[in-house]
Amino acid sequence: MDRTLANFIRALRNSEVRISTAETLDAFNAVELVGYRDRAFLKRSLSLVLPKTVDEKETFDACFDQFFSFEEVRASEQADSTSGQADESGADGQGEGQGGTGGDRGEATPAGSEERQRKGKRKSRNALYEEEEEPDLGPGEMSAPTSALGTLLMQDSKVELSMAMSTAGEAVDVREIQVFTQKGLYTRRIMDQMGLVELNREIAGAREDPAVPVRRLGQELRRRRDWLRGQVRDYVERQFLLHADASGKRLREELLRKVKLSNVEHRSFRLIQEIVYKMAKRLATMHSRRKKVFKKGQLNVPRTLRHNMAYDGAIFDLRWKSVKIDRPKVFAICDVSGSVANYARFMLMFLYSLEEVMPKVRSFAFSSDLAEVTDLFDRNAIEDAIAKTLRDYGGGSTDYGQAFEDFKRSCLDDVDNRTTIIILGDARNNYGDPRAEILKEMYDRAKRVIWLNPESRNAWTVGDAEMRRYSAYCHQVEECNSLMHLERVVGNLLKTVQ
Amino acid sequence: MSAIEDMTASVDAIRGHLEDHRYICSSQIATAVYLAYQLRKPVLIEGPPGVGKTELAKTTADMFELPLIRLQCYEGLDEAKAIYEWKYGKQLLYTQVLKETLDEVLQGARGFAESVTRLHEFGDIFFSEEFMEPRPLLKALQEEDGCVLLIDEVDKSDHEFESLLLEILSDFQVSIPEIGTVKATREPPMVFLTSNNTREISDALKRRCLHLYIPFPDVELEQRIIHARVPEIPPELRRQLVAFIQELRDLDLKKVPAISETIDWARTLVLLHAENLDPDLVRETLNVVLKFQEDIENVQGEVAALTSKVVKH
Q1: Range of the domain at B193
Q2: What pairs with residue A331 in β-bridges?
Q3: Domains defined along chain A, listed by start
Q4: Which of A33, A391, B44, B123 is deepest in the core (most CB within 10 A)?
């Protein structure tokens, strides 16, 4: 049973609910206390132990229902079959004994085998009937099966069967299933693992057999085999839903992180946004606000007293109460002309997703004339603001000289030694005046100037690119054209500005 | 103790006892209390304001007849206010007394080494429990028969304080550098933490707690809550009132009314001897339910429609 829980936790992790080892242990303790019998109770209990946010709780609910609905079916079938077995047990025991001796068994268990026959029919109702070439022999005596799987099938024990199914599933690594189309393959593999070949041979053999009981057994076995196939298919499908769905998404995320942002298709934007948000959140927790204790402000009397105990109570080493939350100022200057617009989009998205850690982001957009767009972001949702920025300021031909001049005029005075300036652009100036001296001024005043260039390094000096001239006045120049780059740069930024 | 064990025998028992103390809850909440007691784990309660997070801790304390020790969190809360503090004044006095008796202690000592030995032999109580002022967390550990510890609005405290909590939450002990580790007495406290989600609580803290999310109650549960809290309200009015509140929660409001507001409103209507909701009555008493002028203005226009919808049912 503990294995069930372990599997469930694995499925949860796959659905992006983060569960630590400590929580797993808690879950085991909870299950020990609560037991598996009352599903609703179990669900309520586990939902207290495993998911730790509201979102995760939703995922948990869905996952639990999916995972344990199967278990529940199995349990009910178990109950069903045990009640069935109760009146069959005698017959079963006898049947097996006689199978061993190979003697005739006709009279001993007519009722028992009839009942089983009926059961077999009922079960196979949903499975596809194969074309029956021979007439149904109807109820009557049957010989004992010889193959392992056949014996298992005829035993009518769902517990044994589902255990065999799980074991076979483990053996063929059904958890590794990745894509939908592999379902047939895994169904086959599990059936093979359970001994299908042997069973098929027996069925084929039985059809040729002259003895009626043996032929009857063959038909029954075939029916049960088809039923089993349906069961295995369901099992594989559930495994797929539990294990593959998320890893497929993870794979895509992994790819999207590395892909060039200008190549991202429009339909992936949503996913990218999710990733950006996730990355930003991680960075935010990593660099959660740090505080500096300042040597001024209110006197912290208890602490001062405590520290001056050693000096005989003479107070001369003072302690202060006030702590100041140090928040960096970031100026982002984004080129939003055609070629770079996509990068600007994600850059801005990233910076504003980091609001918690960097509340003082001021952003500027330009293609030729530069304008501040901070207000736009304050008033609108991030996506809207980005769209508006791109609409209003994008599209012109790039003029870095003009942009720098505008920047100097409007807010160079606000740049101080706590300011980090991030410039995003390809530095392609259409052979205009680069005005690098303004960048030098910015460089002198600011704490850091970081230039992110979406082009690859060897294109930086080709054609109308002015990167060589500009890079002299930057503390750091980076190639930045994928989410991974962006994450690294912003991570470093957070490290240095704090 | 056996009384408590009786109460916590099953989830239904807990639920029943909570109801006896006029706290009507879903089985999810009762399960949380059950597991918290059985597994000896703290519970982190999240949810919108006014759904009874703090109330749950208080009621649990009432139910078990244990003292409730409450620590209200705020920005800047530190160990000196949460765990322990030295009694500086007394410590200073003690040094003065010590100075005066120094001559007696050192009398006849020859040489510096011997003086120091004598000094060491002299019992040092400078840093001892005598001079220690326990704060809520330490007090909770020292309660002989256990207690309910409520750490309220933990999201208002700083990150550093969260780290401070980790030791007490996982092992029911605190370390005091000058003295050593103080462990909980026989019966560790039942710990409830509440959070309004103004910021994300760290994973480390969440890992050590059961996580209970209390949402707004559904119609049926809210009716029962009102019945328990304001028993004198007529049933028909109660139904209308709860239905109206549930409708309000679907609107786009700055602050949606919580259970506490529903209760206040029910009390108001009882005072006014109302039998039924009607638009004028609602308009006049809307300020009990809605706390922002903006919201009130937004809802004013819809009062008639909402009321008729609710009354017709």
Answers
A1: 2-79+146-213
A2: A362, A421
A3: 2-252 (no CATH), 273-290+326-497 (3.40.50.410), 298-325 (no CATH)
A4: B44
Residues A30-49: what's their mean pLDDT? 89
* pLDDT over 80 (residue A406): yes
Confidence bin at A147 (pLDDT 50/70/90): confident
User: What are A294-318's pLDDT values in tens digits?
Assistant: 444 567 777 777 777 777 667 777 7
Same domain, B28 and B118: no
Average pLDDT, chain B: 87
Least confident of A145-149, A228-232, A320-324: A320-324
| Single pTM value for the model | 0.62
Task: Give the residue, A373 or B242, on which the prediction is more confident.
Answer: B242
CATH number at residue B157: 3.40.50.300
Q: Count CA atoms within 13 Å of residue A487 on its CB side.
A: 19
* B35 inside 8 A of chain A by CB: yes
Residue ending a domain, among B161, B190, B213, is: B213
Please answer whether residues B56 and B14 qualify as being in contact, where contact means their C-beta atoms are separated by less than 8 angstroms. Answer: no
Q: Looking at A97-111, B9-23, B286-300, which range is the least confident one?
A: A97-111
Please indicate, yes or no, whether residues B162 and B248 belong to a single structural domain of this protein: no
Give me the number of domains chain B comprises.
3
Same domain, B122 and B245: no
Q: Chain A residues with CB-CB distance to B under 8 A?
A: 18, 20, 22-23, 26, 29-30, 33-34, 40-41, 44-45, 47-49, 51-54, 57, 285, 288-289, 291, 302-303, 305-306, 309, 312-313, 323, 356
- Provide the pLDDT confidence category of residue A66 given band limits of 50, 70 and 90: confident
Torsion over CA of A285, B159, B215 and B225, rounded to 10 degrees?
180
Last residue of a domain, one of B181, B213, B245: B213
Q: Which two tokens stand for residue A27?
A: 């879950």
The answer to whether position B139 is within a domain reads no
Give A30's contacts in chain B (Cβ within 8 Å): 35, 39
Please indicate, yes or no, whether residues B10 and B74 belong to a single structural domain of this protein.
yes
* Tally of CA atoms within 13 A in the half-sphere of A401 that contains its CB: 10
pLDDT digits (tens, 9 = 90+) for B41-68: 999 999 888 888 999 999 999 999 999 9
Please name which of A387, A389, A397, A327 lies closest in space to residue A364, comparing C-alpha atoms. Answer: A389
Query: What is the share, in percent, of chain B residues with pLDDT greater than 90?
Result: 32
Do residue B199 and residue B89 come from a single domain? no
B136 assigned to some structural domain: no
**pLDDT value at position B31?**
93
Would you call B31 and A48 a contact, using CB atoms and an 8 Å cutoff? Answer: yes
Pairwise CA distance, residues A275 & A261, whole Å? 13
* Residue contacts between A and B (CB atoms, under 8 Å): 68
Give the Cα separation of A283 and A279 in Å (integer). Answer: 6
> Is the domain of B224 the same as that of B202?
no
Establish if B165 belongs to a structural domain: yes
Q: Is the CB of residue B181 less than 8 Å away from at least one CB of chain A? A: no
Domain assignment present for B138: no
CB contact under 8 A, B211 and A52: yes
ipTM: 0.84
Contact assessment for residue A311 and residue A317, using Cβ atoms and an 8 Å cutoff:
yes
Are B296 and B225 contained in the same domain? yes
Looking at the fold, whether B271 and B189 belong to one and the same domain comes out as no
Given the structure tokens 């060491």, which residue do they identify? B120
Residues of A in contact with B126 (CB under 8 A): 309
